[in-house]
Automatic annotation (TrEMBL):
Lineage of the species this protein comes from: Bacteria, Pseudomonadati, Acidobacteriota, Holophagae, Holophagales
InterPro entries membership: Pirin, Pirin_C_dom, Pirin_N_dom, RmlC-like_jellyroll, RmlC_Cupin_sf
Domain Pirin C-terminal: 185-285
Record-given protein name: Quercetin 2,3-dioxygenase
Cross-referenced PANTHER family: PIRIN, PIRIN-RELATED
Protein family: Belongs to the pirin family.
Coiled coil spans: none
Residue numbers spanned by region Disordered: 1-34
Organism for this UniProt entry: Geothrix rubra
Pirin N-terminal domain mapped to chain residues: 36-132
Length: 288
């Protein structure tokens, strides 16, 4: 058994998106630009830790209607509530401990906005959105939306902590999110001093991202809102240096060309230009 060391540490980039929602952009992080940034975490394209924040009464902070094409989004909520609507007619309520898997595929327009109660009274919001690339053969697939309610994502008790599996298999538990790209994704919470380890398939990328607290991997400390991209080895192994909440990521790289512009991720620049035209002409649908 060979433990994967830390190959690189990439601090997140504090920014805002949507209607003034503060977030940390973890993938691509600080110092990562252009196409190489998207290939560095193949098959993962983007990861945002939004919040934690307390929405004031009357706020409209959220993510108004916007398009996507060529990938999937997996949005996981830690606290608060969002309501999802999209141009296929999909809708749902995203609650703490729940997630939503959206296939942008050939094109979709969606929004994620605070629930009416938050508009009136305010309240806390925190979550993570992950963009997962689609292989070329699936980029033209039908768009759609799947609700993953909290009861489908139960916590699993571990020595010194607990684990919630969203996709793939971790610690013998398989998550409900199914994607064309082969991935494994989970939320792990550990007490200070607790350890966790997991075998990773050969050839897969592996990374860990603390949201709160600090972990150690082979003597390297990884602070909050930092991506630790792991190197060669067959086992992900970490120790909590403090009480910690973190995301675990692993995936088989697609190794396909990436062309990116805003909310569109395709294989060629011509496909990006077509996506822009299709969106402008309403071919991805609309939200009233």
């Amino acid at each position: 058994m060979a433990t994967k060391p830390v190959r690189s540490l990439v601090p997140g980039l504090p920014t805002q998106d949507g209607n003034r929602v503060p977030l940390t952009r973890l993938v691509p992080g600080q110092g990562q630009q252009g196409g190489e940034a998207f290939r560095a975490m193949d098959p993962f394209l983007l990861m945002d830790h939004f919040g934690p924040m307390v929405l004031p009464p009357g706020t409209d902070a959220g993510f108004p209607p916007h398009p996507h094409r060529g990938f999937q989004t997996l949005t996981y909520l830690i606290q608060g509530a969002f309501r999802h609507r999209d141009s296929t007619g999909g809708s749902g309520l995203l609650e703490p401990g729940g997630a939503q898997l959206m296939n942008a595929g050939a094109g979709i327009v969606h929004e994620e906005m605070p629930v009416p109660e938050h508009l009136e009274t305010g309240g806390p919001i925190e979550g993570v959105q992950l963009w997962i690339n689609l292989p070329k053969a699936a980029k033209g697939s039908a768009p759609g939306y799947t609700d993953l309610q909290p009861e489908a994502l139960p916590w699993q008790a571990l020595p010194g902590g607990r684990l919630r599996v969203l996709a793939g298999t971790w610690a013998g538990t398989t998550g409900p999110a199914v994607t064309p790209a082969r991935i494994a994704y989970a939320h792990l919470e550990l007490d200070a001093g607790a350890r966790f380890q997991q075998a990773i398939p050969g050839g897969w990328l592996a990374a860990v991202v603390p949201l709160h607290g600090t972990i150690r991997i082979e003597g390297t400390e990884v602070p909050a809102d930092t991506v630790a991209l792991l190197g060669d080895g067959d086992t992900l192994a970490l120790e909590a240096a403090s009480q910690v909440s973190l995301m675990l990521l692993a995936g088989e790289p697609l190794r396909e060309p990436i062309a990116h512009y805003g909310p569109f991720v395709m294989n060629t620049r011509e496909e990006i230009e077509q996506a822009l035209q299709d969106y402008q002409r309403g071919r991805m649908g609309r939200l009233d």
